[in-house]
Amino acid sequence: MQQQIESIVLPNGLAIVSERMPDTRAAAFCWLLPGGSVYQQPGKAGTSTILADLLFRGAGQRSGRELLGQLSLLGVQNEESITPAHLVLSGVTQARNLVETLPVYADILRRPHLPEEEFDAARSGLEMTLASNEDDPRQKLTLELRRRTYPAPWGIPADGELADLPAIDMDDVRQLAKSSLQPHQAIFSVASSLALNDLLPTLEKLLGDWQPGEITAPPLPPTTGGYDHLTHESQQTQIGIAYPAADSTHPDYLKAWAIVSILSGGMSSRLFTEVREKRGLCYSVSANLHSLKGAARVICSASSQNERAQETLDVLLAELQRLKLGIAGEELARCKALAKSSLVMAQDSTSSRAASIARDWYQLGYVRTLQSLKQQIEDLTVSDLLAYLDRWPLANLQILTVGPQPLVIHFNQ
Amino acid sequence: MQQQIESIVLPNGLAIVSERMPDTRAAAFCWLLPGGSVYQQPGKAGTSTILADLLFRGAGQRSGRELLGQLSLLGVQNEESITPAHLVLSGVTQARNLVETLPVYADILRRPHLPEEEFDAARSGLEMTLASNEDDPRQKLTLELRRRTYPAPWGIPADGELADLPAIDMDDVRQLAKSSLQPHQAIFSVASSLALNDLLPTLEKLLGDWQPGEITAPPLPPTTGGYDHLTHESQQTQIGIAYPAADSTHPDYLKAWAIVSILSGGMSSRLFTEVREKRGLCYSVSANLHSLKGAARVICSASSQNERAQETLDVLLAELQRLKLGIAGEELARCKALAKSSLVMAQDSTSSRAASIARDWYQLGYVRTLQSLKQQIEDLTVSDLLAYLDRWPLANLQILTVGPQPLVIHFNQ
């Protein structure tokens, strides 16, 4: 599992992080720009997504059509997304085309046309996406639970809000472009067979004189928890529970991760066994660890038929409380085995590695190697996990249900 | 792109296909058993899914709990699915655990307990999954379009039908287990650093005396096409169009594939440009080539706001008709570039390779190497594609819409 990680920070602030994967002919890259949803003006959620769309409608010497045609000719399969902290431009192609791809992205970042006449098309595309999410109760649960457990602006739906769209105009987009499309706090990551030195001269030529701006992320207030219900006429009730856990910058992070794996990793996990297999209460139940930089949540969710929703919620809460009563050695052994096979798989995927090293750089300022992760997971003991559960008691739960009827919370915060 | 493909067919009929990927430490495997949805009794759609669930509730010396625990300890991330032709058991783990995983699967296939007392839990789990699909209009479009364009039993929803569930009983499951869990027409594929010879002694010991049955897939009648509308109160109308194309066993297959890529591969593709970017008609539009063994369809789908649904359908049909008027050399060049980067990426993924070599073996009786695919794609010319469009004219269209109002079809079959 020897990994070759290289990194450099240009004088203007742009961090470049590379993982060399000598056995692959694919190349994946990620641009993290400080233009995520927390940087939008209040009441204008959606500006980031519209900006990401407009970036590909012409840049430098190329019209939008020429730009997209050029990326296709280079075999680039690109994807854009918005997280709370970042506007993310990622892509995969053949390693042999990677160097030629860089000037196209340099144009997109430094010389986008942002054509005003296409603003309406971009906004109406987003409107249709958001409207279609409205019809999906599982999607709604995820977004609304996050909104409640992470105080604003960190919890607002990253893609945007339907109600905000009419208020957004081209000036908002230009302002966000100005503050976010600059090298200060920006990260470029790449995973391929190339060494950093194969790319650096080109990157320095294209981006060395990119002028940095100043940008500071808004603070993230603590959560208090609570219960909320959204009425939705359907056969199924969606149930969500979120509560604080150690985030990825915290020394306890892997313990939080192991706890969640014991709850929900694989078909022997507690939630799958207790909620689904034994009681047949619902067809989907899961727990995930969701981490921002400096704050994380365990997020449990379940979909259940309405008449069994109360029992599902009761069992979920009971399972969360039962954790501190003890963890079997075999549960931890299973969690470690699944983690190791996941690490082995992650090692084969350029796009997974490019995303991971960029995220590590942002959250930690360095890259965790898979070898060190594996070792730390190997070293975990049941007492470590129980001590973690003492330090991070089940508290400040945010519970949300979406369905015809609210439920009763049998739990004292 | 040198690939090492090995295969052997045991005397009892079981085909074993292996791709050696020396650079990875991951291992992926696929069991294709002739127990897909076409083998269910008429009016009992769901039997295959219930069987797949019950297979993991105990086998050989292990209870269900022990079985799942053992798979987790081996780091196996397993996944089961039903296609028209197959009951598919797949998984990934570390290559070092692969040999130990084989006896567990041999138990599952040859000595499953199929506990009657857990039948209700398995069926009610499926009921909840299918009920939740009912709420999702995009899912509904996909399933109902397939049902209409592929005559029964090939077009029925592979996972099952809500209305059929009450009619299914344990005898149906046992009967399907008997006919499908046997080596005749079964395929086992694996992609890992191991050679076939590293696995063969174990496989022969475990499965050499597995007794074959006899099984024949039902015939697949031709389609006639038509228009249908399903009323659904929503803001969006779902539009689907399906029509016959060269299937994966046909010499014209890659031409069909290239046509679909020109329609829908990447952001420069025709549908994305004409329907979404230029006219802003919908937020999602795509075309895919869906191939069974011996029959395939181009399947186009779009989601549009109700008031723009008619125009979206009109533009979609116009784009399909416009294909035969000409294809630009640059369109084909982009399609080739994207195909090559996809092939390079597929080469890194054990699970993608294990699935591909199993499917190739089933559909073709041999494995297409990525090198030969690449060469055949490289050799395609615009005249090849236009000649294909002559041989496979746009006909027998099956159109389906899901939304508040039916649309008008401006197209003469």
What is the compact description of this entry?
Chain A has 413 residues and is α+β, with helices and mostly antiparallel strands. Chain A has helices spanning 47-54, 64-73, 98-110, 119-134, 137-149, 170-180, 196-207, 253-264, 270-278, 309-322, 329-346, 350-364, 370-379, 382-391, and strands at 4-9, 15-20, 26-33, 58-59, 62-63, 77-82, 87-94, 187-192, 226-231, 236-245, 282-292, 295-305, 398-403.
Could you name the key traits of this structure?
Peptidase_M16_C (chains A, B), homodimer, 13 strands, MPP/UQCRC_Complex (chains A, B), Cytochrome Bc1 Complex, Chain A, domain 1, metal ion binding (chains A, B), Pept_M16_N (chains A, B)
Compile the SSE list and pairings:
2 copies of one chain form a homodimer.
Chain A: E1 4-9, E2 15-20, E3 26-33, H1 47-54, E4 58-59, E5 62-63, H2 64-73, E6 77-82, E7 87-94, H3 98-110, H4 119-134, H5 137-149, H6 170-180, E8 187-192, H7 196-207, E9 226-231, E10 236-245, H8 253-264, H9 270-278, E11 282-292, E12 295-305, H10 309-322, H11 329-346, H12 350-364, H13 370-379, H14 382-391, E13 398-403
Helix pairs in contact in A: 1-4, 1-6, 3-7, 9-10, 11-13
